[in-house]
Amino acid sequence: MNCYEDLKDKKVLVTGASRGIGAGIVKAFSQAGAKVFLHYRTDQSLAEKIASELPGEVHLFRADLGKAEELEALFEAVKAEFGTLDAAVNNAGVVLPALAPEEITDEYYHRLADVNIRGTLFCCLREIALMRKSGGSIINIGSVHQDTTVPGWTLYAMSKGAIHGMTGQLAIQEGKNGIRVNNILPGYIDVDKEPVDEAVNLSIPVRRAGVPADIAECALFLASARSGFINGADITVDGGVSRKLARTVNVF
Which residues are catalytic? Predict the structure, then answer.
């Protein structure tokens, strides 16, 4: 049974949707009956494969959201196909290898900030413009790293903290227009479909790593009428791991 019948025929944009969490999200929306716009950055064949597996209407578009002109081209295409948007999931982001503070460079900063911060912000702004007449739901994909992180991820944590800030600000500004803006914070999500190290599973209170469907289910809820009073929220989906002290020892 489809628990999200109100999403049928809704117009939904998902960025970074050719793999991992984004692919799981775009599949879930399509299966719920939504018309989807699938954005990707690099692998056209993979994006086309995902699109071929979707049951409903789907449109593909390639863009590097760190480049202003390509981001604008994406939204021109969305406007041409859909006219408006009912929901959008801003999943596109960059993850780079961990670096010690003294190794951080200006180039490293811009590679992260251009997509994770600037890209997410301007996607939100363009989505708001397409939702102003009839309202909608914007869902950002942040990370538990905004609050609790590990050594070497200074800029990644900073970029996800920026998404937290922009989510709250846009939520309070656009609520009057019927636009809700929320932020999902994934924890460890297995996107490789390979067996997860048992030590990782045991480090998570629910004793398993997350999968893209865990994030997709939360995104569906936030896009649906069922979450109509949730706005400006950070929703952590991590199996409880961020609630643990770093020095936690399993004594049970």
Answer: 156
